[in-house]
Amino acid sequence: MSGETLVTDALLAGWRPPVISDDSDKDSRGRVMVLASGAGVAGATLLTATAALRAGAGKLRIAAPRSLATHLALAMPEARVFPAVETPDGELAPEAADALADVLRSCDALVVGPGMLDEGSAGELALRIIEGKGPAMVVDAAAMRGLAEAPERARRLAGRMVLTPHAGEMASLAGCSKEDVAADPLGVARKAAAELKAVIALKGPTTLVVSPDGAAWRHDGGLAGLATSGSGDVLAGVIAGLLARGCAPAQAAVWGVVAHARAGKRLSERVARIGFLARELVDEIAPVLGELEAPR
User: Which residue ranges form the domains of the chain, and what is each CATH number?
Assistant: First the structure.
């Protein structure tokens, strides 16, 4: 099998997201649902949700632990917030997938996992959503572990799922060590992508995006400053926003990785090499995508 394709401006120019006309409405840009953190890391929900809108999604929905729903509704006035059953620790319970099944199926893209801490409940939540035959989804953070433990259930969303692991999470997904991932990141990612029938964006200074059929793209634009709290939540939201707009999963992952990195580059030049914040990344996403999508 051949190696990976380098992500360049020329590649992006020939692989643009669906065109958004000036007379389009918000329905034409899709609905995103965010199922993310509990009270301890509630900011992850806000980062992910805002990033999805900055990437161009038309409508935003949030499924929140019942005790947190009112707070998130006030903090995120752009969203429709659905109170959902929660675990004793205040995170979304797996049963939320069943209660929200009709709402989830009416969305165009989902994000599950940012800021979640309980791998058991987050993973089961993701698996139940998959089994509910919902839309394309981005699975991040703690929610990914459950997929590796039940690949036969995860495969039911074949070809319509994007996973966003860093090296440690990739090792858990693949059942190997971080050293194994470092030694052969492309091989490990390809094996996991084929096993789970998912697009995998293996994050790092060099990020690899790998599809279930083994096609792979390499992005070399990583920055030290992107390794900061909440940065991955922003990336997950951007990818979901692009999915809602009609991008295919691999395309959404590649474009999301590039937009995220270039947002970081803008901040590294304006603020400092390190020390900029994930919330600042969010505000750079729309201008970056505007530049990338502009006709040339």
Answer: 5-16+28-293 (3.40.1190.20)
